[in-house]
Amino acid sequence: MNKLTADDLIYGYINGIFPMADADGTLYWYSPDPRAIIPIDTYRPSRSLRPVLNKKEFEIRVNSEFSQVMRYCAAPRSYGDSTWISDEIITAYTELHRMGLAHSIEAYQDNRLVGGLYGVALGSAFFGESMFHLVSNASKVAFHYLMVMLQENQFELLDTQFINDNVKRFGAIEIPKGDYLKRLKQALRRKSRFTEPVLEHLFKHQPND
Length: 209
Fold this sequence. Notes:
The chain is an alpha+beta fold. The chain is built from 7 helices and 9 strands, in the order αβββαβααβββαβαβα. Strands 4-5-6-7-8-3-9 form a 7-stranded mixed β-sheet, sandwiched between helices. A two-stranded antiparallel ribbon has the order 1-2. Strand 5 and strand 6 form a beta hairpin. The N and C termini lie far apart (56 Å). Mean pLDDT is 91; it is low at 205-209. Belongs to the L/F-transferase family. This is Leucyl/phenylalanyl-tRNA--protein transferase. Pfam families: Leu_Phe_trans. Its EC number is 2.3.2.6.
């Protein structure tokens, strides 16, 4: 079997499928039904996150250490745990990153990478892949930064693939696969730029309640 390439990834995403590696490195393509998405327009940071944002505990950077973010995401979460992010997947997404289509949002403390996430932007759709944190709240702040970016740049779809407790806390919902494919087709018709938000807008969704 040929190695996974950036072109394979692009073809997969525009057709609603994505790769994951088995424990032995074998790649499989998935198209869940139902599909998990996070509504972009209605996103608001949780009450518990707002004080963290206001304290500005983390410096946020975009696309500074893409491959390292992927490697942290690939690290087992606990002893004996395996990962679906193989070296082959890291190589292919890094190629996609060089093409300007895969992106990382990174959180730093004292110039040290302590959290972040990565995903793929095509048209006005963003496909969230994975996140990690070495310090509490680091990935949540990176995610908030991502959501502000998507809102400001008028992205239409944020795909999170499978539902789990982690994405539920950010407002993830499940929709039928057929509905997802319709939304995907619509989102791919219009190009949104993946550009950083104006800094003061990072805190615009925080009422005093």
